Amino acid sequence: MLKKRTKIIILAAMVLLLGVTGYLNITLNKNAETAQTTATVTTMNYFDTYREDRQSTRNQELLYYDAIINSESSTEEAKANAEAKKLEIVNQMESELVMEGLIKAKGFQDVIVTNSATNVNVIVKCTNLESTQVAQIVSIVKEQTSKSLDNIKIIPVE
Prior knowledge:
This protein is mainly alpha-helical and 158 residues long. It has 3 helices and 3 strands; from the N terminus they run ααββαβ. Strands 1-2-3 form a 3-stranded mixed sheet, sandwiched between helices.
């Protein structure tokens, strides 16, 4: 009789473990699906977040230069340097905006352009770029900046 009771207890424990395993499997699969959805949303928001961060940083820089320009204790040389830097930032913003608009006009869903003194980075929302698309982007960047091909980097982002 003890043998029969032991078999029933073992069988009940196995059924209980099977139920717990099924529950954990369903729960973990739902968590994995949620994580994938979050990753997709994060990528979609990358472009908006980057633009907001870039604009915020530039606004802070412009305020800094305005403070130097408007300060009575600043030297004329410091004021002239601040005005030159402020003009450089404004020109850079305009250049990036124009290139982003022209690249979007070629059919790309979203794009971010960063234009430094030496390099131009183009981040394009695209799973993979064909050679004709790369040529279009390079052509636009070269026309707008006169930078060499070695200084242009194109980065596709899904």
